[in-house]
Design goal:
single chain; 89 residues; mainly alpha; 4 helices; 0% strand; elongated
């Protein structure tokens, strides 16, 4: 029988995985938007800060939608996740 400790443990593991996914998606979006705005060639602290703040305010779903718009739609995003899950598992 599943104990309450087991339920809490699984919840914690799942919450951690979701947080890590959200962080990685934010990192990807930061790189893409930074490249689009030319921040890899020149320094603009205010622009970089505004991009980062926008990303930090985003939900997991918002990050996914933003990335889909940037890289070519849900099919591309889904194929990337499928590739990464196969590579790690």
């Amino acid at each position: 029988m599943t104990s309450l400790d087991d339920v809490y443990r699984k919840f914690g593991e799942t919450a951690e995985a979701a947080q890590l996914l959200e962080t990685e998606l934010g990192n990807i979006l930061l790189i893409v938007e930074g490249a689009e705005k030319g921040l890899l060639e020149r320094e603009d602290k205010e622009l970089a800060h505004s991009i980062l703040k926008k990303i930090e305010r985003s939900t997991l779903g918002g990050l996914l939608r933003s990335i889909e718009k940037k890289i070519g739609g849900p099919e591309v995003t889904e194929s990337i996740f499928r590739f990464n899950s196969q590579a790690s598992g």
